[in-house]
């Protein structure tokens, strides 16, 4: 791993930021991917990140989810799209919950909770409930009632954790989505 300096001109000013980059080999040759964008760094921070990059061991990344882009080897043909035939339906917030879910899996909190929390008669595994509530607090620190009634339905988190909400849950009652989740076990 190494630090890459990136520059961008915006409004006549040059902004410099840094990225932690990893090199790896594929069948088509050597490639590089950005592990993290670090923003603007002070000289002491640059040295610390460079030291960390040199001492990190490569780890296996989590299995790709539905929303992860395909590896470069699998993309071999162009797809033509008629833009006039496209319409948007069921728009939901995606970026923040995808990032939070990726961090949750990268830290392996899902496997940790699955190993240490007992399995009972609940419809949703406790690890999934913890992930939903933690990601909700990370993305929109509001009340649990707001999370259930509004926030969860307007995000793509239900697709990521495979737990769909019900549209007819009355305010203040137990959510119907408790029985509609697919267990990861």
Please describe the topology of this protein:
Layout: E1 2-10, E2 13-26, E3 29-39, H1 43-55, H2 95-106, H3 109-116, H4 126-139, H5 144-151, H6 157-161
Antiparallel strand pairs: 1-2, 2-3
Helix pairs in contact: 2-4, 3-4
Name some characteristics of this structure.
3-stranded antiparallel sheet, 32% helix, 6 helices, 185 residues, 2 domains, alpha+beta, globular, 3 strands, single chain
How would you characterize the overall build of this protein?
- The protein has helices spanning 43-55, 95-106, 109-116, 126-139, 144-151, 157-161; strands at 2-10, 13-26, 29-39.
- Mean pLDDT is 76; it is low at 168-179.
- Helix content is 32%, strand content 18%.
- The chain contains six helices and three strands; from the N terminus they run E-E-E-H-H-H-H-H-H.
- A hairpin with a 2-residue loop joins strand 2 and strand 3.
- It is globular, with a radius of gyration of 21 Å.
- Helix 3 (109-116) packs antiparallel against helix 4 (126-139).
- With 185 residues, the chain is an alpha+beta fold.
- Strands 1-2-3 form a three-stranded antiparallel β-sheet, covered by helices on one side.
- It folds into two domains: 2-59, no CATH class; 88-179, no CATH class.
- The longest helix has 14 residues, at 126-139.
């Amino acid at each position: 791993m190494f630090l890459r300096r990136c520059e961008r001109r915006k409004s006549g000013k040059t902004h410099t930021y840094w990225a932690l980059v990893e090199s790896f080999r594929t069948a088509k040759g050597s490639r590089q991917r950005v592990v993290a964008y670090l923003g603007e760094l002070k000289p002491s921070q640059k040295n610390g990140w460079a030291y960390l990059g040199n001492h990190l061991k490569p780890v296996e990344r989590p299995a790709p989810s539905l929303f992860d882009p395909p590896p470069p080897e699998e993309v071999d043909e162009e797809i033509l799209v008629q833009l006039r035939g496209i319409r948007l339906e069921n728009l939901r917030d995606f970026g923040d919950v995808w990032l939070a879910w990726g961090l949750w899996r990268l830290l392996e909190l899902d496997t940790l909770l699955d190993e240490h929390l007992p399995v009972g008669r609940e419809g949703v595994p406790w690890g999934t409930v913890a992930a939903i509530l933690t990601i909700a607090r990370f993305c929109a620190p509001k009340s649990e009632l707001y999370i259930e009634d509004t926030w969860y339905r307007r995000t793509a988190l239900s697709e990521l954790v495979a737990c769909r909400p019900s549209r007819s849950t009355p305010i203040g009652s137990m959510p119907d989505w408790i029985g509609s989740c697919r267990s990861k076990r």
